[in-house]
């Protein structure tokens, strides 16, 4: 076998190994590439108890219950809901009807234990993923018509998603 042929075999074998390693890594990541799960995503694809992930949606109207440093509220995407418990200081912009992304894990009872709570920054914008989730559920439409009556305050009016 000539040196040129041997080199070609080694390069081909190296590229094949690199391709196989890349395919294995991407396959192992699977659903963990999502920025966050909506309550409907959790209903379709449950996560393991204790697995850390992000949960995003709207804070359900009338669901916020503060007891000292502990806050209980419900995150909804207008189809499904997930109860959340958080101990700590909430962002100033946190309130009912607003978009929120929480980081944490599910406990055995199905309650999401949040380590961090991130609120949207103003009345005009919300995270693109939350807006897309609202659009998918039919509770948010851009334009003059807007969402149907009874939709949360964050979905009313001309709300735009940022990229």
Automatic annotation (TrEMBL):
Heme binds at residues 121, 125. GO terms for cellular component: plasma membrane. Residues 29-163 are extracellular. Keywords: Cell membrane, Cytochrome c-type biogenesis, Heme, Iron, Membrane, Metal-binding, Signal-anchor, Transmembrane, Transmembrane helix. InterPro entries: CcmE, CcmE-like_sf, NA-bd_OB-fold. Its main location: membrane. It is a single-pass type II membrane protein. Residues 138-163 are annotated as: Disordered. The keyword Cell membrane applies. GO terms for molecular function: heme binding; metal ion binding. Residues 143-163 have a biased composition (Low complexity). It comes from the Bacteria. GO terms for biological process: cytochrome complex assembly; protein-heme linkage. Residues 1-7 are cytoplasmic. Belongs to the CcmE/CycJ family. NCBIfam families: PRK13254.1-1, PRK13254.1-5. Heme chaperone required for the biogenesis of c-type cytochromes. Transiently binds heme delivered by CcmC and transfers the heme to apo-cytochromes in a process facilitated by CcmF and CcmH. This is Cytochrome c-type biogenesis protein CcmE. It comes from Roseospira visakhapatnamensis.
């Amino acid at each position: 076998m000539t040196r040129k042929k041997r080199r070609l075999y080694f390069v081909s074998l190296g590229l094949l190994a690199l391709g196989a390693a890349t395919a294995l890594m991407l396959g192992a990541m699977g659903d963990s590439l999502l920025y966050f799960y909506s309550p409907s995503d959790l209903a379709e694809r449950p996560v393991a108890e204790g697995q850390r992930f992000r949960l995003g949606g709207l804070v359900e109207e009338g669901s916020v219950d503060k007891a000292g440093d502990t806050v209980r509220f419900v995150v909804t995407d207008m189809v499904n809901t997930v109860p959340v418990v958080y101990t700590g200081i909430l962002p100033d912009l946190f309130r009912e009807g607003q978009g929120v992304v929480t980081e944490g894990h599910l406990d055995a009872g199905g309650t999401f234990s949040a380590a961090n709570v991130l609120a949207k920054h103003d009345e005009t914008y919300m995270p693109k993923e939350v807006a897309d989730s609202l659009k998918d559920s039919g509770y948010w439409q851009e334009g003059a018509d807007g969402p149907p009556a009874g939709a949360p305050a964050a979905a009313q009016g001309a709300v735009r998603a940022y990229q």
